[in-house]
Structures are given as C-alpha cells and as structure tokens.
Amino acid sequence: MTNNGRFFSIAITFCIMFLFWLLFSAWTVYIPQSYDMSQVFKGILVALIVAFLTHEIFLPCRGENILLKSRRFVAYSIWEMWQIYLATIDVTKRVIGMLPVDPRIIEFDTTLRSDLALTAFGNSITLTPGTITIDIEPERGRYMVHAIAKEPADSLTVDQIMQKKVAYVFMEE
Amino acid sequence: MLAIDVISTIFMAAGAFFMITGTLGLLKFPDFYTRLHATGKCDTLGQILIILGCIIYEGFSFITIKLLLVSAFYIFAGPAGTHALMKAGYVCGVPVWKKGDKRM
Asked: Which of A145, B6, B24, B63 has the least C-beta neighbours within 10 A?
C-alpha cells in the first residue's frame, strides 16, 4: 500500500473508532460536574492506538462497489429479521407438536466464493427456519446442512431463494 | 407511563416465552442436532424481544445504542456458536437421529 493510502485508511479508522468512543462514553463527558478535557484526550489517544493496530483488518483495500453492496445488505438484513421471526415460530410449533420432527442431512453447491459471502450465507442458513450449517467447503461453495424436516431442506435445495438473495447482495451470481 | 410499562412488559414476556420454548425443545427433541435447533433459534428472537422491552422501558438515551449493539452482536455470534457446536458434534461422529429410531 502506498504511504498516502496508509494515512487515508488510518484516518478513516480513527474517525470511526472515535465516533464509537463518543457513542459509548460521551454520557460520562457531558454530565456537567465531571466534564473534563483529559477524558476526551484519553479517548483520542485510545482511538489512535486502535487505528494504528487494526486499520489493515478494518479496511481491506480490495473492496469494490462497497456502497451498493451495503445498501443491498441493509435491505437483505430487514428480510433476515423477518426470517428470524419465522424460524422461532417454526421451532415453537415443532416443540408443541403441531409439525413433525424428521431430521436429515443435505448437501448442495452454491455460486458463492468470497469469505464474506460464504460466512453471511452460513449465518443466514442457521437463522432461517429449520436449518443449521454443519460444514462449508470454500473452494466449491459446497454446504452441508442439517435440516429438521423435509420442507426446510427443500427450500434450500429446490427453491434456492436465499442463495439468490445472498449472491445478489455480494454480486457473485 | 402506564402505556410504556404495559408495552415493555409485553415485549419482555414474549421474549421469556420464546426462551422457555427453546428450553422445552432442548428437553423434548430426540438428539443432539435437533436440540441445537431449539436453543439456537429461539434464543435469537428471545434476546431481541427482551432487549427491545428494556429499550422501551428506559426511553431513548446513549444506553439504547449500547443495547442495540449487544443485540446485533448476538445476531452475528449466536449462529456462529451454534455452527461450531454442530460441526464439532459431526466431526466427532455423534449419531444422527432418523424418524422411527429410538430416542437418544
């Protein structure tokens, strides 16, 4: 990385870290009797140290279309919240006995390759109704999934709605 | 004030209900993997509802942001923990229950 780019990434990381410090501890600074400039300097110092140590992890320099991806990711996470609700209702029905318990292990391939997309899809499988990720083969995008009944397994292998959504978010169709 | 009390109580009670359901599933389901289904999924919605109840009860302040971040962290960390347990069980060869087998 060039010197200029390094300075830029440290500066961005510092700004975000300091923002977080303000969110977490600003209430101790703004209360009148304990208002103290040295608190703020401590915050700046800590944010600087963290920025120097972690800017390479925090801002990897291979991002493309980050704004578009994050906009799609926000829309996707709202849909995911609805899926969390459905998943809990589904498990509740199975506990009460309204739906059958008929577990099976399935495997299927996806088009995803990057670490972030694989992790996001693995987490999404665990959050959606009736399925939990067991194992991932990153080279082929192959998932091994434990499904609690036939319908959740079919929603992954036949319908493939979620694969398409995740691939759309991370542009790996 | 009463309305806030009632709404936050409803949220927390719903969260506690789902937590209890998860525990019931842990006791009722037949094997290791299906038990993880019960705990891994019910806890996520349960903690979201309980934290929402806390936020509504306390009103908006800087603590709200901390509570929301705790909730968001659990949404990312919960599935990862469930997956880790699942994979460890599978690698060690914990048998998979099929329909009709004896309860493990």
From this structure: B6
